[in-house]
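My current task is to audit a protein record that another person submitted. Please read both lines and tell me whether the tokens look consistent with the sequence. Do not assume that whoever made the record got everything right. I have pasted the whole thing underneath without changing anything:

===
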Amino acid sequence: MSVRRLDPVQPEHFSFSPDNLAWAKQTIAKYPTGKQASAVIPLLWRAQEQEGWCTRAAIEYVADMLDMAYIRVLEVATFYTMFQLSPVGKKAHVQVCGTIACQLRGAEDLIKVCKRKIHSEPHHVSADGNLSWEEVECLGSCVNAPMVQVFKDTYEDLTPEKLETLIDDWSISRRTQPGPQIDRQFSAPVGGPVALTDKSLYKGQRTFKRVEAPPPPTPAAAPAPAVAPAPAAVAAAPAPVAAAAQAPVKLVDAPAAKPIAAPKAPAAPKVPPAPKIAIPARSAVKVPKAEKAEKPVIRSAAKAIEGRPELLAKPRGKADDLKLIWGVGPALEKLLNKIGVWHFDQVASWSAKELAWVDEKLEGFKGRAKRDEWIKQAKKLA
């Protein structure tokens, strides 16, 4: 990716028009509290549509609207090539696609036309200030290559002669027809349609005889459930035979049952005596001392290291979510808590020396506190 820098000549002021300002506020309101930075690209794009290019004043204006550090919005504007960092033509900024499909079908000839008719170098405005051009990556109309884009319109299937005519029209604000510049409907084949060419298909009538599907067969009646055979009649029990006269039965007393002895409880198992262990005198045993836990650095009035800010052993009630400071993640928040930083008002009260002292303690993150303007962010959050 090429280096992208702001133009050396910048306007002093930028502000949204009333309509664009209302739109911007509406767009910011779509995002939850604390996530307004997500609106940075839409706002920068609207600023570019208003001014024609992204000025430094517009970048700082958007940063102030979203409570973002200037460097963060500048990173977005310089990273995405859709944002123009230099002035462009007032009437047309021609973006020539130079990737493989367009290159094979004549994009180099279109670039030669732009160099001759507009300016010998890209990103330079023509002498009258009306036109400018640049070469860009794929614009998504490979079937209609070669092509150019002017603001929101694309002009496809171009020849050098046709592009020259378009440039002349743009320079005098004459209306032009975007889309394919040959007898072609969008991305249809160049010689005309090759499929579904039978005109009878479009008369709104059938070209075949409709055959209705046969109705589904009627389901057969379910068979009656089988009846189990009746059980055979149970033979009548024979009538009891009349008992013959029986001799009288003598009753003999049964011998008394002997009482059952209660079971004996099992004998308790014999436990061998515990071996005797010699216990040394208390003075002879050395007990290792517990390691002292490291305490967070606390600043006192008597022993204050120069530049060290006010630090806390623990938060005052509930700790603030330091991750709301741009550039502070979970790991960096834990590191700040470890050295005694828990609240936004602590960070907001730091001096330049105190900020430098904390920056030096951030192992793996040195330089971030100063670069991301923590003090300025914390004052807004405190």
In short: Residues 40-51 form the longest helix (12 residues). The first strand starts at residue 92 and ends at 97.
